[in-house]
Amino acid sequence: MTSTTDVPDPQADREVRHANFRAYYDAEAADRAHRPIPPWRTAAQEEFLVLLATERRRTVLEIGCGPGIDGAAIEAAGFEYTGTDLSPGMVEVARAAGLDARVASATELPFGDDAFDAAWSMSTLMHLDDAELDAALGEITRVLVPGGLFAVGMWGAQELTVGPLAAPDEGYGPPRYFHRRTDQTVHERLGEHGTVESWWTRPSRPGSSHRYQYAVVRTVGADD
Question: How far apart are CA 11 and CA 49, in angstroms?
């Protein structure tokens, strides 16, 4: 007979992962604030902001704001910006840069329905397990206006890989949990929450199965 102590507890596992995640990014916050964004990701952001301006969007929510590098660019482009992050250390750095940022989980956003015109989330949602990803995408679409736009980027792989990194990175803290999904899986998950209007993938290096997956999703409109 299997005892109850042998049965995995998903909630307990998530709490450990989240604690490790906060410890890692709290320690990394100051350094990450000085780490440049890759040109290919900056180009994606600029294209997204042009789209938002063309559609006269005004308010933008970032999920996983980090130290506020993307947030500063979004605000400088003339949008009303709000950022969220699970790491208090990252939020502190973002606030010090003058941004409206707050500690919050992607699966429980502290905002009302239809609160934002658009959302931006880079290199964040691949830290969530399947249940958390579904919850986060549901929350993002909930806080967006009907027909709102959501840009998301995640690290994925040709084959599903799940688990923490083999060792701590650069001495910042515990290993981080990654859930690297296939292109098909990510595209399908996003399509459950709206229309995928843009989609591309980019290998981390030539020939690598590790790749960045980027999409722009439009939520269901009021008349759809």
Answer: 37
Q: Report how many domains make up the chain.
A: 1
**Integer Rg of the chain from CA:** 17
Whether residue 223 lies inside any domain: the answer is no
Could you tell me how far CA 60 lies from the centroid of its own chain? 14
**Cα first-last separation, the chain:** 52
Residue 3 lies in a domain: no
Of 183, 215, 14, 42, residue with least CA distance to 105: 14
**2 in a structural domain:** no
Strands (E), the chain: 59-63, 80-85, 101-103, 116-122, 144-157, 161-164, 177-180, 195-203, 210-218
- Specify if 204 maps to a domain: yes
User: What's the pLDDT tens digit per position in 27-56?
Assistant: 999 999 999 999 999 999 999 999 999 999
Would the pTM count as exceeding 0.70?
A: yes
pLDDT digits (tens, 9 = 90+) for 6-17: 545 777 788 888
Domain that holds residue 165: 9-218
